């Protein structure tokens, strides 16, 4: 994908050399996670709400209860959606140069409500299949009342930037001879052993796709 020139709102000024504006890098950060934070203003006060999300092409989607104050508040208005991954502690030779390795995306734009129930169903299937490929076909189909009780929003991946740090610490030249350990302590998200529901029916096998779960 070609790199798009950033708008003034998303252009990075602080440590700008870590900025990425190409869609390949941005999509990679988005697709590596499932938890985002949506920032918005409600009744004149700022709020940030965590929620699950997924990407389809040039849009990011999230959903929840139709009774959600956040979903009602952001429908049709400008929001800021962020995704971040902490990849490790960066231990330098001075406290000032300690850091973290990370990948993050900030996305600005209008949140649009999906009103077509058939499209909502298709998007929900995409979401489930992204997390657990093969599970949607095994589940009880959603009821009409469940779809009506769900609000789904999306925003275009248009005004967006990524910021990424990787690699070892960067110390002042005169500090490299300081006798203290320096380097990176990597962080990795892993899935734990499955814990069956106490009311699970007898002889229901553990699906193979459970073993492929990768926490975002």
Describe the structure.
This protein has 216 residues and is an alpha+beta fold. Helices cover 16% and strands 35% of the residues. The protein contains 4 helices and 10 strands. Strands 1, 2, 3, 4, 5, 6, 7, 8, 9 and 10 form a 10-stranded antiparallel sheet that branches. Strand 2 and strand 3 (45-56) form a beta hairpin. The protein is globular and about 65 Å long. The mean pLDDT is 92.
List the topology elements.
Blueprint: E1 19-20, H1 23-31, E2 35-42, E3 45-56, E4 59-65, H2 69-74, E5 78-91, E6 99-110, E7 112-113, H3 117-131, H4 144-148, E8 150-156, E9 159-165, E10 183-186
Antiparallel strand pairs: 1-9, 2-3, 2-5, 3-4, 4-8, 5-6, 5-10, 6-9, 7-8
Short synopsis of the structure:
The chain has 216 residues and is an alpha+beta fold.
| Gross morphology | globular
The number of helical runs is: 4
Q: If you average the pLDDT, what whole number results?
A: 92
Note the beta-strand portion.
Answer: 25-35%
- The helicity comes to 10-25%
The whole-angstrom Rg is 21 Å
Helix/sheet category: alpha+beta
Taking the sheet with the most strands, its summary is: 10 strands, antiparallel
The number of distinct β-strands equals: 10
Low-pLDDT parts are none
SSE sequence, one letter per element: EHEEEHEEEHHEEE
Distance, first to last CA:
24 Å
